[in-house]
Each structure stands twice: as C-alpha cells, then as structure tokens.
Amino acid sequence: MSVDDLVAFEERADELVAKYEHADDRGQAAAASATREELKDLLRAVLERSSNLEGPDRSASERARALYLRGPLIECTADQGDADGAKALVGAEEALKKAAKLNPTLEGAWICLGQLLWKKGNLDGAKNCYAAVTSRAPNKKASQCMSMLCRTIAKAKAAPGTDEQKEHVVESLKHAKAAIKLDVTDGYSWYQCGMAYMTQFFAEGATDPNKLSQSLQCFASAEKGGPAGDGSLEKGGVGDCPDLHFNRATVQRYVEEYAPALEGFKRAAQLDPLLPWKGEVDAMLAVLTKLDDGCAGQGPMFKPKRLLPIQKTLAEARASAAPEEYRGGSLKALAPGVNKGVCVNVRAALDATAEDMLNLHYIVVDGDGTLAALSVYGLEDGAVRQSSTLTLLDPNVKDVDATWEGRRFKFRLVRVDLPKQILVGGTMPVGLARPRLASVNL
Length: 442
Description:
Layout (H helix, E strand, L loop, with lengths): L2 H23 L3 H21 L10 H18 L5 H20 L4 H13 L3 H12 L5 H18 L5 H20 L4 H17 L6 H15 L17 H13 L3 H14 L5 H19 L8 H14 L9 E2 L8 E2 L3 E10 L8 E6 L5 E6 L12 E5 L2 E9 L2 E10 L5 E3 L18
Parallel strand pairs: 1-3, 5-8
Antiparallel strand pairs: 2-7, 3-4, 3-6, 4-5, 6-9, 7-8
Helix pairs in contact: 1-2, 1-3, 2-3, 3-4, 3-5, 4-5, 5-6, 6-7, 7-8, 7-9, 8-9, 9-10, 10-11, 11-12, 12-13
Keywords: TPR repeat
Organism: Micromonas commoda (strain RCC299 / NOUM17 / CCMP2709)
Protein name: Tetratricopeptide repeat protein 5 OB fold domain-containing protein
C-alpha cells in the first residue's frame, strides 16, 4: 500500500465511521447495519494491504497511521459479546497503543483508544487518553468525549452530593464549553453542554433553577446548530438526535413545562421507539389527570361541607398570618411568574403525589374557595401536613395548558422549589430531601 492509498483509506474510513455513528446514535438500525457492512469490507481491504506499511523499514509516522486505521474500523464492527469480536477488539487496542507510542501527536489514535477503554469500563484509562489530546492542543472531539466521560465518572465513582462528584461535573461543563469555543455551530457540543448544566443542577442539590434554564438554552442551540443556526443538519444542528429530545423533555418535565415535555417525548419516540419514553409520558399523564380533576373540584374531597370550614378558617387568618414583609393575597389574584412580596394561605385538600414523580403534589384551597395545584420540591413525604395551614411565600405561578390524545389539561399551578418558600403551620418545614434525580441523570 502506498501513502496515497493510505490517505484514501483514511478518508473513506472517516466518512463511514461518521455515517455509522450518526445512524447508531439516532437509533436508525437499518442504516447503521448497512454502514457496518461497508465498514467490514473496508476493514478487510485495510488488513490485506496495510501490512507493508507497518514494517520497520517504514517511517514511524506511516506505521502509526497504518496501525491507527484499524482501530475505528474494528471498534464499529466487532461484537464485544462474541469471542471473535472480543479478540479483534483486543487486537485493535494493542494496535492503537502502538500507534500512539510511535506518534504521540496522532490525536485520532488516542481518541479511539479512549473509546475502547471506556467500553471496557476503564474510565480512568479513557480519561488519560482524552487528556493526552487536550493537554497538547484544543480538540473538539476529545473535549466532547471528555465532557460525557466526566459525567459518567461522577455517577460511577463518586457518592451523590459529594464535593468529588461536583468537581467531576464542573469538569464536564468546562470541556463542553471548550468544544463549543472551537466550533460554535456544532450542535453536539451544545448538547453536551446542556447535559452538563442539567447534571450540575442536581449534583449541587437542585437549588439553582438558572442551571436548568441554561440547560434548555443549550439544548435549543444544539437543535439549531448554534444560537444563530437555522436547524439545518448540514450546518451542525442535531434535531434528528432522539436523546436530545428525550433529555430536554426530562428537564421540561422537571420544571413542569408539560406541553413541550409531552411533545419532546413524542418526538424522541418517533426518532427512536426503543427509548423508555412511554413510562415517562404515562407518569406525567397520571399526575396531570389528578391535578386537572382536582382543580376542577372532581371528587369527594371537594364537597362544600368539607371545604367551607377550611375556607372560613383561612379567611379569618388571612391578615394575621402574613409575615411582616409580605402582603396577603389569594390564588385567583396571583399573576403568572414569581409574585414577589406576596403570601397566600392555603390548606391541602388532596395529596396528589404519584409514586414515581420527582416531587410532592397537592390540590390546595384558599380562603376564597379557589382550587389550585401545589408542587413542592426538596421535601420528604409527610413534610406537608393536610391539617396545617400552608403559607406560600413569593408564589411562583404557571397556568398549565397541555393536550395529549384529545385530553386537555388546564389548571393553575404554584411551584415551591425551596423550603424557604413555604411555611407549614407558620414555621419552615422539616424533612428536607435531595431531589430524586440527583443520582440518576449524571
């Protein structure tokens, strides 16, 4: 094989590997399978013709390139669960190590070796490979891989909520931003940044909602191909990536943007039906049904003989129970968004919390008899007692309006993100809990 042949093989390998990874990441099984067969044909040709470039009479650079060429081809085509495939992967790993030793500046060899080590569970080894690239010069692919790997390490090797975990997540965000800096139009880099912000929110105790806003902004840029992108796949957009839609919908579900969350899971399912979207949608629909029916006063808990005594008690206590720096208000008078300086006294008429949801849900009533949904984060079950008067401070309100398969869900929701935003019986609640997603989405 001549050097010109090697260049041609490298170009063809880069093209097919990118094509295969694109199809595989997007759950396009038929396209991935067809491309895999093309990669197998190319691998056979490479193995047949590259041996003369690996001899001691060739330059270190040529030998390194010939050895490296095997790596990504074997990685994409070998079946790790098969004996022959496992043997081929071991051979690929050895070839990549030799290539990196012969030419330490061969970035592709280090990145591919990192991928193989990662698949084997050698996370530290994979990180060393990516660091061998990024420590020498900025590299978009290595930074993208490093961002994702740091989140994997945070989940696999650090206890939830520890400083060690937080450090890994901060490093993940740093590498994602480095990749964006190298190419602001690469949607995949923006996607990694969105995932890093989402992970950081939960790793740090879910106390900074701005992290989720930044995550959603990054996901939007990922879909468009940068903040100024037009959504074209050819110009960097990754709107055909099912994981983007699934994970963005996960964030939207957490911030209770139910309409876009349902649409996001629906889009993810269209792109990759194998994603666990149905369980997510069913859980949301169960809660939406409870909240919508409750706010409409459907059920025995909302009969006048049960609510009128509660209303009378709340109406009498409205003025006296307000903290000094707040003015008393009612559920109906609240505006969408944060109602600064306002407090509203309510009582829980129904516990609507679902078993697998991320928070506590209640249907509450105020002194005027208005019903609304209350969403409480960061508290253990039982921290909010139905017998107690709840004082909502600076209520954060959104009017939910979502439709799924002909059923419309329309109700007022008050969200409590932090314990300091609610008083139970006049005091701050006890039973603080870490959000359940804290160790899931890393």
